């Protein structure tokens, strides 16, 4: 009986791409299922009812969530081309550094991209302190010392997303001058054929991130202004809602781009839902499927199974 392997992911999720990379390094056949993070599928909610996030790996009907947990599951289930060393100490060390990247470095880097002013400066400084730690480890060859991509290398694929985000947001965290060893690691990863196959096209990802950067501050303002209001002007659709019919384009666009989620902007999401449920609005709005086809063609964000 053939094994069933499914990966629930999202185009703009680095954690989904991490698992895709791991599966391809193992040479495994799998079905990729693109999730709409605005309208999550019943299957995703069934398989990951706790976090309701991607990625989720489903192996013969059994779900595994959280990317580093999934990585270990893949390595223990399919033992060829191992990611983790066999020595218990080296294995523990690899786990430690993978978590350091996910739990220390990456949150600081994301904060640097999302913030402004003094807050951004502090986040850049924190992210660079973590890069200094990685730089020291790399120079002493304590980690990343394998001939093939391993557990920590797969975790470090986030460096690709960092380099792209730097260009999109105009932020400088990782440079070859400041962190030559870390930059060399990034370059080695980026030059790997299987890595290139799994990562989104750079220009499309830059466009995606710039859209997020441009839209999110305005959505935060709208989120604040809508608190405890059914509609902006009262209990029924008004002038602002008529002007804001373009919000429909945003919500449909984010199915392709991942710009907006209920978790980030719950009040705006609720407002949109009331808007979209209005009978007159439904009568006037163009078909949703045509919107989605338009944005897929515009941004090239593939949602086909892989």
From TrEMBL:
Residue ranges occupied by any GST C-terminal domain in the UniProt entry: 87-209
Entry's Gene Ontology molecular function annotations: glutathione transferase activity
InterPro entries: Glutathione-S-Trfase_C-like (IPR010987), Glutathione-S-Trfase_C_sf (IPR036282), Glutathione_S-Trfase (IPR040079), Glutathione_S-Trfase_N (IPR004045), GST_C (IPR004046), GST_C_Tau (IPR045074), Omega/Tau-like (IPR045073), Thioredoxin-like_sf (IPR036249)
Keywords: Coiled coil, Transferase
The keyword Cell wall biogenesis/degradation belongs to this UniProt entry's keyword annotation: no
EC number: 2.5.1.18
GO biological process, one term: glutathione metabolic process
Top-level EC class: transferase
Family, as annotated: Belongs to the GST superfamily.
Protein name: glutathione transferase
Organism the protein comes from: Vitis vinifera (Grape)
Lineage: Eukaryota, Viridiplantae, Streptophyta, Embryophyta, Tracheophyta
Name of encoding gene: GSTU7_7
């Amino acid at each position: 009986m053939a094994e069933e392997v499914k990966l629930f992911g999202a185009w703009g999720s680095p954690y989904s791409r991490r698992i895709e990379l791991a599966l391809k390094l193992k040479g495994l056949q799998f079905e990729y299922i693109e999730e709409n993070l605005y309208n999550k599928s019943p299957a995703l909610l069934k398989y990951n009812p706790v976090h309701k996030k991607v990625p989720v790996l489903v192996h013969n009907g059994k779900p595994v969530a959280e990317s580093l947990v999934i990585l270990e599951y893949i390595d223990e289930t399919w033992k060829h081309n191992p990611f983790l060393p066999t020595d218990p100490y080296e294995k523990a060390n690899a786990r430690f550094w993978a978590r350091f990247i996910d739990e220390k470095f990456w949150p600081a880097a994301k904060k640097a991209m999302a913030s402004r002013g003094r807050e951004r400066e502090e986040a850049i400084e924190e992210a660079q302190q973590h890069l200094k730690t990685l730089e020291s480890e790399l120079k002493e060859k304590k980690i990343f010392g394998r001939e093939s991509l391993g557990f920590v290398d797969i975790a470090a694929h986030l460096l690709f997303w960092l380099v792209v985000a730097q260009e999109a947001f105009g932020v400088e965290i990782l440079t070859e001058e400041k962190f030559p060893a870390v930059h060399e690691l990034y370059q080695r990863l980026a030059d790997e054929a299987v890595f290139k196959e799994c990562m989104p096209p750079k220009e499309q990802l830059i466009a995606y991130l710039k859209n997020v950067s441009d839209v999110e501050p305005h959505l935060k303002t709208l989120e604040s202004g809508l608190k405890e209001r059914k509609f902006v002007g009262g209990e029924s659709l008004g002038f602002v809602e008529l002007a804001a019919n373009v919000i429909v384009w945003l919500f449909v666009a984010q199915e392709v781009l991942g710009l907006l989620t209920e978790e980030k902007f719950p009040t705006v999401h609720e407002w949109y839902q009331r808007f979209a449920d209005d009978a007159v609005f439904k009568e006037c709005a163009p078909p949703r499927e045509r919107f989605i086809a338009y944005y897929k063609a515009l941004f090239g964000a593939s949602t086909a199974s892989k």
